[in-house]
Amino acid sequence: MAMKSAQSPENTQKPMPSSTKRQIASRLRRAIAYAENLAAVLEASTAKASKMDTVEARAYLYMLRGSLDFEKSKWQTCLKNYSLPRVAYTTLGKETKNDAFKDLLSGIVDPSIRYAAYQLKLPRTKPVDEIVIENFPSNEQTTKSSLTEVDSHAFQTAKEAVKAEPGQHDIPTSITWRSRKVKLEDAVIAQSLGAAMSEEETLQEKFTKSKSDNTSPTDLAASYDRTIEARQDAADATKAAIDDLAAEGVDPGDARVQSLQVTRTAVNYAVIEFRIGRNRVLCGPSDGLFFEPEQRTIPNKQSSTEAPIQKQKSESTGRQVSRLRERTALYDAILQSIESVKDLPGVIADTAFVTELDAKHSYFRALKCLAIGRSHALNNEKANALALFSRARQLCQSAATDLPSNSQQSSSPNSAPKLDISTSLLSTATSHLTTLVTRYRALTELSNLTSTSTNKTPTKPLAYTRPLSDTLHLNIYHDNPDLNNIVNYPPKLQPIPVKPLFFDLAWTYIDYPKHGKKAVQAASGGGKGAAAANKEAEKRPGTPEVQEQKKKGWFGFGGR
């Protein structure tokens, strides 16, 4: 197989050489001889091999024979030889839970069977299980009996299994999506839809019993899982059928492709519907419209002789906010699922259906705003809660206006919740939100009046207060500045601080401690003191006058 993949046209961009084909066939013949010897040894009476070991050896032998027939393009023989390992590896994989059998099936056996069936022009709607059961080697009755002992349904087709199981729904032959009906030509899709319908009936029975049994929302939501899995299998089968047609080069405008696209939209919408229904069940009754604190029961500590007394404890605010946060996350998941419906083929072109989806989106947005508003109300933020409740009421009213009447009537209170919304539920939500808006508007008004009266404290009027502009240079924090006294207006004549004139003249008469007396004597001595001072200045080296005399001309070097 490594040699074949290395020399394949996909890797080399050239046809495989005939020498490579002969070498591959030679190695396969040698491997078949070794596998025949191994099977003969294990089937001998002296060998202490189990039946499963013998079955696995026979399956490996027939897989090698099928590979050789595949290289020789003997499609009928190839299909017959690959049928035994297909049944054997499927049965052994279920029994041993070994991934090696799954790898062999997905990597070698199944692709070879599909290609051989394509070359034999078998109907592509025929499942692989039916093909391998019909082409199982007739001379391998011992292997067949061994496989039947391990799994009694090993040689039973999916169609027969659905009919044999009690309570299973009939396999549908067509599917309807928005007034368009198409036939189900693929058997795998039809079988998956039949199993999904059976799971839906089981879910409906559990939902009906839950009203009398008081089943918890968590247990009821878990009942949706099997239905969602069955619907997802149908969606996967539809996608695989479309991919197979695309690989064969079928034009997208072909009738088969168009029918499969309609089927794909229908089955994927069903998957999304049941996911939304599961989240609606987790939100609580009426989609979480009402919210009440939970009461926890705490046993009172008493002596063993006395009967224990149960004590009720109300739910804390933090716990209530946590529950509302979880509910908001569920609403977010529902909104994302509704948005994903628009990505399905052909949905965005249906204007009426898009309007219906937008109305349902508005309804769940209203419930999300309601949950967030309740968390604000628990934190004593009445104004925020009022704004959110008002927004939720607007969204709910718009949903009731835009939602078609036929969509509202399709929902029944006795059916398991999906994406349908009833008229009674919308009217109940609108009236409840109107009550909350009225209540919290009154609470907000009372809160505003209380805060206004508290802030009005009597203060004594000051005779004169400096304007705010006159205190900007001061390091003062104004907690409640008077905006009516920012500047002096109207302007008035008032004194301002100025520098006094005698401040400069006063420095002349200051007697410094060290040389104050010398300055006074020099002033009193007249010309003598001045002459003596000039002589002393001449004797001092480096005086400014001497330095100025040395500098002649421009830049001090003109006299050179």
UniProtKB/TrEMBL annotation:
Subcellular localization, per the record? Cytoplasm; Nucleus, Nucleolus
User: Which keywords label this protein?
Assistant: Cytoplasm, Nucleus, Ribonucleoprotein, RNA-binding, Signal recognition particle
tRNA processing as a keyword? no
Mind telling me which GO cellular component terms the entry cites? nucleolus; signal recognition particle, endoplasmic reticulum targeting
Record PANTHER family: SIGNAL RECOGNITION PARTICLE 68 KDA PROTEIN (PTHR12860), SIGNAL RECOGNITION PARTICLE SUBUNIT SRP68 (PTHR12860:SF0)
The record's similarity note reads: Belongs to the SRP68 family.
Q: What is the purpose of this protein?
A: Component of the signal recognition particle (SRP) complex, a ribonucleoprotein complex that mediates the cotranslational targeting of secretory and membrane proteins to the endoplasmic reticulum (ER). The SRP complex interacts with the signal sequence in nascent secretory and membrane proteins and directs them to the membrane of the ER.
Q: Write down what this protein is called.
A: Signal recognition particle subunit SRP68
Q: Which organism is it from?
A: Cyphellophora attinorum
